[in-house]
Amino acid sequence: MPEGWDHGETADAADAADAPDAADAPDVTVEAAPTAMACATCGATPADMALARLTWARGTENGHEVWTCDTCSRRHLRSIEGKLDSSWW
Question: What long-range pairs does 52-55 form, CB within 8 A, spacing at least 24?
Answer without folding.
Answer: none
